């Protein structure tokens, strides 16, 4: 599945079904720029099994605040709306792929 952008208005709908990896990021964040191509590659590896959603924390402070996002990039994995894992900072592709596959049912 392609990477999708999500907003405060539709965040809960985005995470409510299936496995969703959410990237909390901002355009001015250097590490966020580093992780972007890693997430693109991950999307190619996991296909439709996982939705990858990006939340710009500057434009969507409600979602970031609700989940206590203090540093970016922060990646959260949701399974059917439940927060099951959190990763702060840039992570290698292999680690993210293993984390996602661990939560696939």
Structure in a nutshell:
Helices cover 37% and strands 29% of the residues.
Summarize this structure as a short list of keywords or feature phrases.
4 helices, globular, 105 residues, 5-stranded mixed beta sheet, alpha/beta, disulfide bond, Glutaredoxin, transport
The CATH topology assignment is Glutaredoxin
Pick out the low-confidence regions: none
Number of domains: 1
> Please, how many helices?
4
Structural class: alpha/beta
The major pleated sheet works out as:
5 strands, mixed
What's the CATH architecture? 3-Layer(aba) Sandwich
Give the strand order of the largest sheet, numbering strands 1, 2, ... along the chain. Answer: 1-3-2-4-5
The top level CATH class name: Alpha Beta
Strand content: 25-35%
CATH superfamily: Glutaredoxin
Strand tally is 5
Arithmetic mean pLDDT: 95
Helix fraction by DSSP (H/I, runs of at least 4): 25-40%
Radius of gyration: 12 Å
What does this molecule look like?
The chain is an alpha/beta fold and 105 residues long. It has a single domain (3-92), classed as 3-Layer(aba) Sandwich (Glutaredoxin). Helices cover 37% and strands 29% of the residues. The protein is built from four helices and five strands. The chain has helices at 11-15, 30-46, 61-66, 93-103, and strands at residues 3-5, 19-25, 50-56, 74-79, 82-88. Strands 1-3-2-4-5 form a five-stranded mixed sheet. The radius of gyration is 12 Å and the shape is globular. The two termini are 17 Å apart. The model has no long low-confidence stretch (mean pLDDT 95).
